[in-house]
Design goal:
The chain is α/β, with parallel strands linked by helices. It has 28 helices and 36 strands. The strands form seven sheets. Strands 3-2-4-5-1-6-7-8-9 form a nine-stranded mixed β-sheet, sandwiched between helices. Strands 27-33-32-29-28-35-36-26-34 form a nine-stranded mixed β-sheet. A five-stranded mixed β-sheet has the order 10-11-14-12-13.
């Protein structure tokens, strides 16, 4: 049997008209009704049975079944309500399972509009399914309703299919008008044909053809069904509230999703008008994603619940949303859907990720989407914008995805063409970040690898102002409504905390290297944790992230350089004069030096309502969410003391809370313990057994070359895998997860994700210093993975550490990883007996014995 074999439609006269079907043919019928489609399916099915073909009916529509059970065929019922990717994948898998030379009947594709509301996605489904059917030498019948779909959808189907046929029923007579018949031709093939029994009478006379077509309504160009639905919804704004609520819920399922706590909160706070306003700023179709939903919902909650308390302080937003369907369309129309399908399998999950990531960085967007991108950029002009991931699963209850996907600043300088190209590439980078190793591991570890993870995109105007050649907000940061970083008994965990920086907030969400953010406990904002007066300058922010107009990129500048320029308000609002350093400079004779400052935010926190406002914002959001929340924000100030806060993001803060109070064991001697400390831990009250301690020795690690330090990090990753399921405490110098090996150990979070406790050990002499990164993406990873965090400042008051307790035990490194014995002087793995770690937040006591 070969592809040139002629196969019957079941209608001999029509076979002659189109020179029969061929293996690989996809046959698309444009119909007025399902009954009309069925009249052509029946002879095809009868013929297929007569020829002893394997016949498969794919059922997904709401219309009456085209074929019934018991007709010597296999029926697959596919649920289209689960979305495009699930539907397309199930069809792909069943086609793969049925293999070569199967004969198919599909329900009417137009019924998919009821579930997806998008012509675009129906076209995408056809583009990914039909080539695979063609490869397997199948024959498949499809139907679409006439005058329903957009011209571009029909054009896409025409381009992909082998046969496109108009099917008319006029005065109970059946006419077939072939529009496309691939690789076949006759002088009369593309005339309409009247079907009389087994005959197909070609209508060649102009009078008859004119009479036929004049009786048929030819629709004008149509909007995508998505646009029709939202356009019709605007008319409902004039109708009673009950009707508005009904329509609002339908639209919310299209933009936000359904069956979730976030949906319930949106349903409570958003009106139909709000939803239509969101839709008016969407490019493409589909969901706007978790980050966009969180930002919009939080703003609406504050306006609704604040009794105008917050409205005066909130900076307006004018964000745009790239719908999640653009992500699929980008993949489909660049021809990568098969690769994505392979990557979504268990065996292909990591294997194909790198190839798909590379392709995602170099694709082309559809022309209609390009045009909408251009219009959006014209709207923003040369204002800097940020292109942020907003995936379906992001920022929801249970999964924060903190820092797993990319955000890209577009400084928006240059010609319109240059600005457009930079924006387009920023979207590609966000799309490609779905294949980042951290994102893949996060989804895998949380059982999400098989879930649809469409990537929507949030495009926000960057909050801030121009300061000479730089653009930045005065302050930015992260806020948490629950403060688990309680460093003494006076700190109220329910008052919340801020992780505050001057300039762009990138320093607040990431662990900054060689720099420190300001931790603000909102019940006592001026109280500074963990810092002696002489260390105040050392443990403060020294560099500011800004957008450089000159270089057209995100960069950092020294605090001294930034504060030397005009920041349009008094710099003492954020920084205090460093009198100690100034005096030392005078003693050394440097009289012309600039006045040195310490960025302590003292005046901001003491003399403005900023801290109180942030406390109230976090409290209000947490109360409505009925859950701790995590926000990102900026704030900009004016000379008159007024300020505006821009709420950029809000998500449920994944935290297990304090836990029950712990009774500390009594010690006969301090040397009975492994370590003891006051404060400097995160993770609530615990009493946790420890099976193993993995201890990286400071001095030995420091003596290694940079390359060897990276080798140590990779070995930690392997130990992390080997000891999975055990209670393991990981201890090392400086910062875990640093990108600078001189400051700590450069592991990825995946390489320490199975640990029960991680401990960062400080040594002022050797230059290692933990960074208590509460509120950062690193912290989110710790909390979501339920890892307890400890910082040990060796040599400080109230800190006792006796490393010989574990170093005197046999080193298990060679047992676990014999090939790593070279580094047994650096990594010591002790198998412990009866070791436990205790913490109590109220007394701020930490003990391991």
């Amino acid at each position: 049997m070969d592809r040139h074999e002629k196969i019957s439609t079941g209608l001999k006269g029509f076979d002659q008209a189109i020179d029969h079907l061929r293996l690989g043919d996809n046959v698309v019928w444009q119909v007025d009704s399902i009954a009309c489609y069925k009249r052509l399916v029946d002879p095809y099915v009868i013929q297929a049975k007569s020829d002893q073909r394997r016949l498969i009916y794919v059922r997904f529509g709401n219309h009456d079944p085209i074929l019934e059970e018991g007709q010597e065929l296999t029926i697959y019922n596919i649920d289209a309500r689960k979305g495009f990717e699930s539907f397309a994948t199930q069809i792909h898998n069943l086609v793969k399972q049925e293999g070569k030379r199967a004969f198919y009947v599909f329900d009417c594709l137009t019924d998919l509009l009821e579930y997806w509301y998008s012509d675009l996605m129906i076209g995408n489904f056809f583009k990914v399914t039909c080539p695979y059917l063609y490869e397997l030498d199948t024959i498949a019948y499809f139907a679409i309703k006439r005058n329903v779909h957009t011209y571009s959808t029909i054009a896409g189907i025409r381009e992909t299919t082998q046969l496109l046929l108009d099917l008319y029923s006029v005065n109970d007579k059946i006419y077939i008008h072939p529009l496309k018949v691939w690789q076949r031709y006759s002088p009369t093939m593309f005339f309409p044909h009247l079907i009389l029994g087994q005959e197909a009478v070609c209508i060649t006379a102009s009078s008859e053809a004119a009479e036929l077509f004049s009786s048929i309504h030819r629709g004008e160009e149509r909007l995508d069904f998505w646009d029709v639905v939202f356009s019709n919804a605007r008319e409902v704004l004039q109708k009673p509230l009950q009707k508005q609520e009904e329509v609002k819920k339908i639209l919310m399922t299209l933009l936000i999703g359904n069956d979730s706590k976030m949906y319930d909160l949106c349903n409570k706070y958003f009106s139909l008008y709000d939803i239509l306003e969101i839709a008016s700023r969407e490019i493409g179709t589909g969901f706007i994603g978790g980050k966009s939903v969180g930002m919009l919902l939080a703003r609406k909650i504050l306006v609704t619940e604040g009794d105008e308390r917050f409205s005066a302080y909130l900076e307006p937003h004018d964000s745009y949303y790239l719908g999640s369907d653009i992500f699929y369309t980008y993949i489909v129309q660049n021809g990568w859907w098969r690769l994505r399908t392979k990557q979504k399998t268990e065996e292909g999950y990591y294997q194909y990720a790198k190839e798909l990531k590379e392709k995602l960085l170099h694709g082309k967007f559809p022309e209609n989407i390009q045009e909408q991108f251009i219009q959006m950029l014209e709207y923003f002009g040369q204002s800097p914008i940020i292109v942020r991931s907003s995936s379906l699963l992001e920022d929801n209850f249970g999964n924060a995805f903190a820092g797993k996907y990319e955000s890209v600043f577009c400084v928006n300088q240059g010609t319109p063409k240059e600005r457009y190209e930079a924006f387009e590439q920023a979207v590609r980078i966000v799309y490609a970040s779905t294949m980042n190793e951290d994102a893949l591991n996060y989804r895998k570890n949380r059982g999400l690898s098989e879930k649809d993870e469409q990537m929507a995109v949030l495009v926000q105007r960057v909050s801030g102002d121009y300061y000479e050649e730089n653009f930045y907000p005065h302050v930015a940061g992260v806020g948490n409504s629950s403060n688990l970083y309680v460093w003494d008994q006076s700190v109220d965990m329910d008052a919340g905390m801020l992780r505050l920086v001057f300039g762009l907030g990138t320093r607040a969400v990431d662990r900054t290297e060689g720099d420190y953010v300001r931790i603000v406990s909102l019940n006592d904002p001026l109280r500074v944790p963990l810092v002696n007066f002489e260390d105040q300058k050392k443990f403060s922010q020294h560099y500011v992230d800004v957008l450089s107009l000159k270089d057209n990129t995100l960069t950092n500048k020294s605090l001294e350089d930034v504060l030397t320029g005009d920041i349009k308000v008094k710099k003492t609002l954020f920084a205090s004069i460093d009198y100690q350093t100034a005096e030392r400079l005078r003693e050394l004779g440097y009289t012309n030096k600039k006045t040195p400052y310490i960025l302590d935010f003292a005046k901001l926190l003491k003399d403005t309502s900023f801290a109180v406002l942030m406390k109230d914002i976090l409290g209000t959001l947490s109360k409505v969410y009925d859950y701790p929340v995590d926000i990102e924000f900026t704030a900009n100030f004016k000379k008159d003391g007024s300020f505006k806060v821009n709420l950029l993001q809000c998500r449920p803060l994944q935290t297990k809370g304090l836990g029950k109070s712990i009774e500390m064991p009594k010690l006969n001697s301090l040397k009975d313990c492994f370590f003891r400390s006051k404060g400097n831990f995160m993770g609530g009250n615990i009493r946790l057994p420890i099976d193993y301690v993995v201890f990286v020795k400071m001095e030995d690690y420091l003596s290694l070359s940079e390359q060897e330090k990276y080798t140590i990090a990779r070995l930690i990753g392997r130990i992390n895998s080997e000891l999975k399921g055990k209670k393991v405490m990981l201890m090392g110098p400086g910062r875990w997860g640093t990108t600078t090996p001189s400051l700590g150990i450069p592991v990825s979070f995946t390489e320490i994700c199975n640990m029960s406790v991680i401990c960062e050990m400080a040594s002022g002499e050797l230059g290692f210093m933990p960074e208590l990164s509460y509120g950062s993406h690193f912290f989110q990873d710790l909390v979501e993975t339920d890892i307890f965090y400890v910082a040990l400042f060796d040599g400080k008051k109230d800190v006792e550490l006796y490393p010989e307790k574990v170093l005197n035990l046999n080193n298990q490194l060679e047992v676990l990883l014999p090939e790593a014995s070279t580094y047994s002087s650096v990594i010591h793995i002790a198998k412990t007996k009866g070791m436990e770690i205790f913490s109590d937040i109220l007394t701020q006591t930490l003990l391991c014995r």
